[in-house]
Records
---
Amino acid sequence: MAEQLNDRENSGLADKFLQYLPARFRPGAAVVPVVRLSGVIGAVTPLRPGMTLAGVARVLERAFSMRNAKAVALVINSPGGSPVQSRQIFLRIRQLAAEKKLPVLVFVEDVAASGGYMIACAGDEIFCDPSSILGSIGVVGGSFGFQEAIKRLGIERRLYTAGAHKAMLDPFLPENPDDVAKLKALQREIHQIFIALVKESRGVRLKGADDTLFTGEYWAGETSVALGLADGISDLRSTLRARYGDKVLTPVIAQPTGLLSGLLGRKSPGAGQLSAMESIAGLPDELISAVETRAIWAKFGF
């Protein structure tokens, strides 16, 4: 009898203790950490960096290491960018998923196109809104030709190189067909890497022909599902509640902010004045960066 009373007392104490623990640390709590991956991928300018592996690695590791996690949810909103950074982020997500044995659920917001779709392929399942845009599985590069403009202004281009192709595609020189052919060969090589990644990730779920899926075209949500680029039309809250119950916890894992991070990242005396000078000097870069970013989003109607 005394042993039963002791067990009840211990159980009561344990219950009271659990009340003071954050919900995600309580036994039996279903937790699905959420990571937002947004913006243009890669370094746009030194003063306005885009999404990179270095920038998201710590957040991903925190999400996959969370106690009681049943899965990891990625919310993606990106028009693409650097193919290298896109693939590195994809690989890191798959590595963590394998190490922690956790499924990855991807939820597309406005856009998961080009490199954004490459990252989305890291998900075991991809969900989107009917108005989301997915696809753009291709490679693009662009430049301008200024040779006639500088000629009218009386400017002479002087360029000195060592290496026959060092000045390839210089925008101040006339376009060389051989240089264009070399660029297109490089793009085709990168395109094949992208195609192989999508095929390996989506497998038999892909329903469209190669000459439809891999032309660089993009589609809205319903058509993307029909083509096998996504698995269904749904939102994060509805999907996670249906799978893990109404009490599923969805903590958003973000980069550290606030007072502590400010103290840890405090700069040396005089750094404020230096930053101001850097900002003024970097205004042209910031303007170009903003225009480039806007142009990438505008391609998809945003």
---
Amino acid sequence: MQPTLFILAAGMGSRYGGLKQIDGLGPNGEAILDYSVFDALRAGFGKIVFVIRKDFEEDFRRVVLSKYAGKVQCELCFQSVDKVPEGCTFNPERTKPWGTNHAVLMGKELIHEPFAVINADDFYGKEAFRVLADFLRSAEGKNGAYCMVGYRVANTLSENGTVSRGVCSTDENGNLTNVIERTKIEDKNGTIVYTEDGVDTPLDPNTPVSMNCWGFTPDYFEYSEQAFRAFLAEHGQELKSESYIPSLVNQLITSGKATCQVLDTTAKWFGVTYIEDRPQVVMKINRLIKDGVYPAKLF
């Protein structure tokens, strides 16, 4: 069995100021998601599914999918505000997408095997895909056997502003017990802190955080739809509330319906949270190419 890689690419990237999912950062115009696909293929993933906006389809097929023709099976699904489960209602003035849990739900008809979920605009590193693939192969035929790659918070900061991260707690077996979204995380004079209500709270540099790098068995889709129906019943008339993956994972762990193994990695995450991050990302990619981690031309 080969697991599937599900790439979330429906966001605009408001802070970045453009369609960063297809921004060419590598020496031959490679986007960050190209490196994820390359890493996934050498780790043993057999299919790539992208969730995008429908109005983005033509550009996406031309710029992205054309590179993978003949190399790997690719599928597209689409996230839109009006794509909700049958019988659900929402505020007709809503324009903002419903969040990552809704984005994953869009893949329900295309994915029937263990799968990983990542963001299109985050660079995860080859080690993340190796441990994900190993875990997902071992999870075939099981239900509720989930995982996430836990990055050490010190390896996920931006030099150009604060970041938000899902701070994780684990039990003695390395299973996730809780994810709490912390905002305004930064290095202040050598100490990593998050700021809430004007108060700085220190974080150990090795604290595991979620970078939206998950592994799921297919039963996740049923839970996802149930949770999204409940979310709409409570928040469907709101204009900005979103349904997130960590919230559902927390519910499933607490109710005993699933376990989520936190896979440790020393890999350094990087991404283009801010437009000012772009030159640093280009430099880091070039360094990895120089070190032989990637070829100069991926596809």
---
Amino acid sequence: MRLQRALSCTMVSLLLGSCALWAATPAERGPYGIGEFHDDAVDTSRGREIDLLILYPLTTGAGEVPEAGFPLIVFNHGFMLRGDLYRSYGEQLASHGFVVALPTYPMSFSSVNHTALAADERFIIDHCLALDRDAGSSLHDLVDESEIGVSGHSLGGKLAMLEAVTDERVRAIATLDPVDGGGPAADDPVLYPSVAPELMPQIHAPLLFIGAEFGGVAYFLIACAPPSENYEQFFAAANPPAIEITQLGAGHGQYADPGAESMLAACAPGTATADWVRSSSAAYLTAFFLGHLESDTAALAWLDARLADDEAQGRILVRRK
């Protein structure tokens, strides 16, 4: 395993009857420092320009770069938001040994093409792999090209799955309150293809769906995550292995970092604290990706124990297949 281990066991490991040598649990900041840079990623073949924030592990004081490099995670933002509004997730993942790309895709209220945005996501993967091969890049020789995961919130969650339908490089997918639809007028199957249930059988990577209990509550006119298009529909149509986590009291807008409140004001507010929604989601994501991209069985055991504890406390509901 590439995660740097400490010389003591975590409490979770002890409770499970094993001694995994963790430097930090997935709920804590990991052992790596964090580097970052912004990049203007231009796909000249399609005339698309994408602002890109990349966070990556710094190995000083935390060990050497793994022989095969670090896994890559592309994290997609929600509708009309920005990549940097999910920095907290990127920092958590980077501190545990992931290269994290946080793109800001070109879109407007009058121009949102889900097919083009999924192609943007594929381009970002290609771009990051090209940076890995560029001797002048900060990512040079840092990325494990065989270990790629995708994630995202709301529309970004749908895009993660839509791109993965035809991209076999994607090895694991984790989403935050994903929404399949494109709005009341989005009835063009070319611009707004439905993923669930139609395309879900084509996805064979492990899946994690985190959903907000209040995402389907109509606050202004329509719900931000309508029940007919939400995480439950993705889970119902998913191939195993898949995990569905319903965060009780969570609102659809609580997944983005502070600064996005005005852009998500139309979403029903949650009764849970936004800090808990974000921190618990980041912990679930970190453990899931460690387990499925790093083959870290201790991380998956930690995730099982954490989910059981959170469910016992009445904070979440969990389904598996």
---
Amino acid sequence: MSSGDMRADRRLAFAEGLLASGEAAAAADLMADTLPLMPDWAAGWLRLGEMAEAAGREGVAIDAYHRASELDPAGALGAGLRRDLLRKVPVVERMPSAYVEGLFDDYAHRFEASLVGKLGYCGPELLARTLPDQLGRVLDLGCGTGLMGAAIRGRAAHLEGWDISAAMLRQAQAKKVYDHLGKEDLNALRITERRWDTILAADVLIYVGALERLVGWVAGSLAPGGLFAFTVEALAGEGFALGTARRYAHSESYVRDLLAQAGFATLAITRSTLRTDRGQPVEALVVSAGGLGARLGRTGEETELA
């Protein structure tokens, strides 16, 4: 968060103290007076937005988030997401990869203690219950610290995990349950000759939003007879939406229609509590899709499976 200027950093520290003591308006005023010292300080504009939002000054917050997003074109700070949530306009269809990577690099060392220990997260266990005894070659998308891998290691002939966060991958490596781990961006996957019998995604699609591209990649990367199983947070409406906690939720109709369009012939969806958030249960869709009727060939044309 440092600006590189001691005066601006001292003012930020004082503003943080005001915010912590419940004086959000005073904190926002101080940050607004500070930023002329460092007008290109993206993190400073982000904090002004957060303080102004806490003070109920939505207009100031939107302007500050917008300036932060201009200064951070890769989106690592997630300022654009916060701006669009306040503006109540359609948000981006997926989170910036740099934002997700930074979020989990920072979160990795306390991920399991916070998510499992405090919030009762049970996504891997819910997903594991839906899976057959033999999974063949398994790819764990967004493997994180390896919770999903640990839950199904005994059923996999070969287990590979991919994640965008190097820090999360180090945590997964320490579990020694994966045959291979790789640093991959789910927003940039390309279909290759490699095929998996099972592709899993436990609580990772909440950072993707529009699932069309990813589901297309899965359909083109499964072996004949393969299985795609995943969890998403359940949306009561239609399509998908970004919530105030900056996670996407997906409707059951959206998931069903998308998987059918991708050629999956069999589908099972159950609803269960994934974890708690602010003391409230978070409902999830636990999805298992198979019977792939067609897959995209290398030329992009549909070819029937043998």
